[in-house]
Amino acid sequence: MVKTVDLHTHTYYSDGVLSPAQLVKKAKDIGLVAIAIADHDTVSGIKEGLEEGQRLGIEVIPGIEVSCFEENHEFHLLGYFVDWQNSTFKKMLLELQERRVERAKRTINEFEKIGLKVSFEDIRALAKEVVVKPHIAQAVIKNPQNREILEKTFGRLPSVDKFIQKYLCSDAPGFVEDGGWGIEEAIKILHRFGGIVSLAHPCWDLVEEKDGSLVFEDGFLEKMVGFGLDGIEALSFRDSEENSKRCQEHFLNLGKKYDLLITGGSDYHGFDENTGRELGLEMTPLKISENWLKLMKERVRSG
């Protein structure tokens, strides 16, 4: 039987629901042998996750997910095996967290222009540490003043994911850049602190659906490869099994073309657990083999 892993998960230190210990226990319960904790702009959950992983016999990979901006597009980079105890690295992450706060406040101003009401206090109350898009989405959805607009737009109160896609992604009404790291800068920083760098969820960020067909925007990837990108999260779920298979085939081929490591994961948060967002991609035919993790480790050992 193939041993499986999930290399893209979040805890309540960013936009996940579970504590690191709860996340590791859930991974054990569903039969995973390893997970990567990759919270947004924080490594606060790594220590607890590693300790629980050692107790339960689950390997925990220390990771990070950072947002980058290129030509008014937002991309996320995953850093694996980062030096999470490094004080300089932690200080740099704190600066990113402060930028996220300012970004949230500017997003509130953008929402005001289209009639959506939300206060920063309501957003901040939902965040244990890092303020991220799901906190903004939840605060807007929970505000009864927004019910009429949201039901008119979506037909009902939307899920957090649907709200983010409509209002907070690149080119959406509430999207603002945060002046954070550029892609080249982020790759250099993550390499500096020991990380292997993989492009997260390209099935969303490098793909657009037009007239029922998927259109791949590969130019951005070629630029990232030039900046030193190590891998691509080719193994992830989009919005249907059919589209996911097309994306996986496309990005596996690009990974081979550019000699990139292949990574994969659910981007598990613990809310809105629609198909493809469950830990370990549990409700899909896609499973991430431990062999992909072994290849990552070989790359780390080879320097």
UniProtKB/TrEMBL annotation:
Ranges for domain Polymerase/histidinol phosphatase N-terminal: 5-70
Gene Ontology molecular function: 5'-3' DNA exonuclease activity; 5'-3' RNA exonuclease activity
Highest taxon listed in the record's lineage: Bacteria
CDD domains for the chain: PHP_HisPPase_AMP
Coiled coil: none
Annotated PANTHER family: EXONUCLEASE, POLYMERASE_HISTIDINOL PHOSPHATASE N-TERMINAL DOMAIN-CONTAINING PROTEIN
Annotated protein name in UniProt: Polymerase/histidinol phosphatase N-terminal domain-containing protein
Lineage: Bacteria, Candidatus Woykeibacteriota
